TrEMBL record:
Keyword Membrane recorded: yes
Bilayer-crossing regions: 29-48
Organism: Echinicola arenosa
Protein name: ATP synthase F0 subunit 8
Protein origin, superkingdom: Bacteria
Alphabetical keyword list: Membrane, Transmembrane, Transmembrane helix
Length: 71
């Protein structure tokens, strides 16, 4: 996992905890934007994780093509 992914995942977890605290103290109306921001970060993390996996597969495919050409 890359540093950017770790940071996004940690921030989204922290925002869920903060949102839960705000819900307990002030109500769901005030914590709703915090939860939505946490969900947006989770979606962003999932997008980046998929993108990184595709890049890794491309690199593996290119390395295999190079091996076949050298034979």
């Amino acid at each position: 996992m890359k540093l950017k992914g770790i940071i996004l995942l940690s921030l989204s977890a922290a925002l869920v905890i903060i949102g839960t605290h705000v819900t307990m103290t002030q109500g769901i109306t005030f914590s709703y934007p915090i939860f939505m921001f946490a969900v947006a970060m989770l979606f962003w993390y999932k997008y980046l994780k998929t993108k990184w996996a595709e890049q890794d597969q491309e690199e593996v495919g290119q390395q295999q093509d190079r091996k076949k050409k050298s034979r």
